[in-house]
């Protein structure tokens, strides 16, 4: 069964981890369009293991004046102007996602959320830029702290590429579905949960000290 250590406000120094993935029209968060964003919140199950909880997902209309790099579009296969995407404004997407995160963060008794992502600096930089553009006053996310599953996977699995890390962890991964924010976020969440839970299973959490 779970114990007192199986809470977010004790496990991650009070941070509430939220797995994020973005698909973009380039590499510059200030000038290039955000095209898709997904988030997965997490929870502890009855045995104290980390599992996926709520999924938020938005296709995003490029902000006014946004740059769209042809090479980026060719890579991710997104047509920014396709009406069938069901895209919403960047403001609606970011504010909707952050509202859901704040609600989950509050329920977990945490004061701040932290972005979990594969190559986290990239996703965090686009999230920060979008939050600034829509003038969101109460971002739930820490502006610079992040949990990078690339680094964690290198340490625990000897892999840095998402698909290879998932394969090493025994997590199924369909490369045809890759480069979709919704799919990649869920797989990153699976990977993060696997690594945290594996550490717990090996006796690394709760921390046992000599004083205990």
SSE order and pairing:
Blueprint: H1 8-11, E1 15-24, E2 34-44, E3 50-59, H2 70-76, H3 90-107, E4 112-117, H4 120-133, E5 141-148, H5 149-157, H6 162-168, H7 181-201
Parallel strand pairs: 1-4, 4-5
Antiparallel strand pairs: 1-2, 2-3
What does this structure look like?
The protein is α/β, with parallel strands linked by helices. Helix content is 38%, strand content 21%. It has 7 helices and 5 strands. The protein has a 5-stranded mixed beta sheet, with helices on both faces. Helix 3 crosses helix 4 and helix 5 packs across helix 7. The longest helix is centred in the last third of the chain and has 21 residues. The mean pLDDT is 94.
The portion of residues forming beta strands comes to: 15-25%
The side-by-side strand order for the widest beta sheet comes to 3-2-1-4-5
Overall average pLDDT:
94
Give the biggest beta sheet. 5 strands, mixed
Please give the alpha-carbon distance between the first and last residues: 20 Å
Shape: globular
Any idea what the radius of gyration is? 17 Å
| DSSP summary, beta strand count | 5
Tell me the series of helices and strands, N- to C-terminal: HEEEHHEHEHHH
Count every helix, treating DSSP H or I runs of 4 or more residues as helices: 7
Parts with pLDDT < 50 across at least 5 consecutive residues? none
Counting helices, strands and paired strands, the structural category is alpha/beta
């Amino acid at each position: 069964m779970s114990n007192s250590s199986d809470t977010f406000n004790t496990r991650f120094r009070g941070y509430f981890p939220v797995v994020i993935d973005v698909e973009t029209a380039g590499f510059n968060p200030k000038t290039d369009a955000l095209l898709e964003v997904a988030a997965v919140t997490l929870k502890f199950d009855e045995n104290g293991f980390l599992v996926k909880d709520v999924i938020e997902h938005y296709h995003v209309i490029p902000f006014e004046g946004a740059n769209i790099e042809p090479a980026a579009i060719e890579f991710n296969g997104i047509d920014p102007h396709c009406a069938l995407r069901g895209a919403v404004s960047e403001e609606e997407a970011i504010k909707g996602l952050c509202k859901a995160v704040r609600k989950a963060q509050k329920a977990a008794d945490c004061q701040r959320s932290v972005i979990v992502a594969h190559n986290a600096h990239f996703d965090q930089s686009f999230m920060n830029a979008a939050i600034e553009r829509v003038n969101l006053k109460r971002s739930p996310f820490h502006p610079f702290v992040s949990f990078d599953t690339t680094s964690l996977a290198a340490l625990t699995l000897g892999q840095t590429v998402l698909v290879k890390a998932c394969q090493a962890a025994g997590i199924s991964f369909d490369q045809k579905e890759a480069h979709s924010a919704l799919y990649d976020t869920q797989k990153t969440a699976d990977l993060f949960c696997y690594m945290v839970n594996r550490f717990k299973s090996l006796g690394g959490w709760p921390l046992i000290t000599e004083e205990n």
